[in-house]
Write a structure and sequence with these properties.
The protein is 38% helix and 15% strand. The protein has 384 residues and is of the alpha/beta class. The strands form three sheets. It has a seven-stranded mixed sheet with strand order 2-8-7-6-5-3-4, with helices on both faces. Strands 9-10-13-12 form a four-stranded antiparallel sheet, with helices on one face. The protein has a two-stranded parallel sheet with strand order 1-11. The longest helix is centred in the first third of the chain and has 20 residues, at 44-63. It starts with 7 loop residues before the first strand and ends with a helix. The chain binds pyridoxal-5'-phosphate (PLP). Pyridoxal-5'-phosphate binds at residues 13-14, 77-79, 103, 105, 151, 155, 178, 180-181, 201, 213, 342.
Length: 384
């Protein structure tokens, strides 16, 4: 009997695994050594927790090119950040432009507001490879366009949006970027690019734990608080403080998770974004090459690694995507994902709605051996 292959995790676009050892250590040490309620008391444990949060805020501000760390706001994930931005920034009568690759964490709040008759939404077309053409943004822009939402890297095709070109065309509108799949892979300079609302999640490419994320609020952007309560500051007042970050962060924060997120970002800085990206794109490249040799497989997105993140979507010839993902898992211990990946809009554009695709997404800790093993498994499934 052949030795079974160790489990292979290829679902890093959902959440990265494993996390760097430093992340587990930072969380373990903190949990065992101190209480985690920051800014609420003057005792040593509260001060320690406050320093952890402050250091993480400063780290993320530097990481995302934000000169004022008080404009980095922590949330539970990118979905919460995007909801806060969409519900907080839009006013009745506003027009919104979204790319055709947006995740439901953007489309559902937008469609909800649209259904209530409060906003109108234009969706930019995507090419067969999932590309957005900046000329379409110019065509859709109107005097009432208040917000442009760009998914930086598609979680379906891995296609990278032309962020700098789109940003240069925003004119009087606000630019919101969903960096769920790009943070930790690509450099993101919120100030340099003129991003007004940069939403990130902590548990994917930033290598932190689930339950972490946030947004970077551009200078001068007026966003109302989305929840109110104890902040440990201005406690003599029954009204919410009016200064960032406190006005947005009522309630005891996820100190433990934020410490883990900071450790993940430090790991990225020590390793280097270029090193991480080269490794993940080398795996992507080899996988794309290998898929092209397997009969009947149709790959979506760009044909080579250029213009891609480390996500590959494909459809097997003559088999359902569910069957392939199921067999990869049960027969080969390879964890991939089948379906719409919470992005039905992107699949409509690609022509893969409603069945979706099999999605394989690589992380820094994946190896070439795992890619070869997966290609071999897919060839066997295709042949069987
Ligand atoms: C592009 C994109 N946006 C938003 C999300 C939502 O991420 P989270 O579940 O961390 O809020 C995801 C993750 O699936 C994503 O890929």
């Amino acid at each position: 009997m052949p030795t079974p292959h160790p489990p292979v995790y290829f679902d890093n676009a959902a959440t990265s695994f494993p996390k760097p050892e430093q992340v587990a250590t930072a969380m373990d040490v903190l949990l065992r050594s101190t209480a985690l309620s920051p800014g609420r008391a003057a005792h040593a444990f509260s001060l320690t927790a406050g320093r952890v949060i402050f250091a993480a805020r400063e780290l993320l501000a530097a990481f995302f090119g934000c000169p004022d760390s008080s404009r980095v706001i922590f949330t539970a994930n990118v979905t919460e950040a995007l909801n806060v931005g969409i519900f907080g920034l839009l006013r009745p009568g506003d027009h919104v432009i979204a790319t055709g690759t947006e995740h439901n964490s953007v489309m559902r709040p937008l469609r909800h507001l649209e259904q209530q008759g409060r906003i109108t939404v234009s969706v930019l077309p995507v090419s067969a490879a999932g590309e957005t053409d900046p000329a379409d943004l110019v065509r859709c822009r109107r005097p009432g366009t208040r917000l442009i939402v760009v998914n930086h890297v598609s979680n379906v095709t891995g296609t990278v949006a032309p962020l700098a070109e789109l940003a240069a065309l925003k004119e009087g509108a606000l630019l919101m970027v969903d960096a769920a799949q790009s943070a930790g892979l690509f450099e993101l300079d919120a100030t340099g690019l003129g991003i007004d609302f940069l939403a990130f999640t902590g548990h994917k490419g930033l290598l932190g734990p689930t339950g972490t994320g946030g947004f970077v609020l551009g200078p001068g952007i007026d966003l109302p608080p989305f929840k109110m309560g104890g902040t440990g500051s201005a406690s003599e007042r029954e009204l919410q403080p009016d200064f960032a970050p406190d006005c947005y962060e009522a309630g005891t924060p996820n100190t433990l998770g934020i410490a883990g997120l900071a450790a993940g970002v430090r790991f990225i800085q020590e390793t280097g974004l270029t090193t991480i990206r080269s490794h993940e794109l080398a795996l992507t490249s080899r996988f794309l090459d290998g898929l092209s040799q397997i009969k009947g497989i149709m790959v979506y997105g760009l044909p080579t690694r250029a213009g891609r993140g480390a996500v590959v979507s494909f459809r097997p010839g003559g088999k359902s995507v569910d069957e392939v993902a199921y067999r990869l898992d049960r027969e080969f211990a390879i964890m991939a994902r089948a379906g719409l990946h919470c992005a039905p809009l992107a699949h409509r554009g690609l022509g893969t709605f409603p069945e979706g695709t099999v999605r394989v997404s690589f992380g820094f800790f994946n190896t070439t051996d795992e890619v070869e093993y997966c290609l071999d498994a897919l060839a066997r499934i295709a042949g069987a």
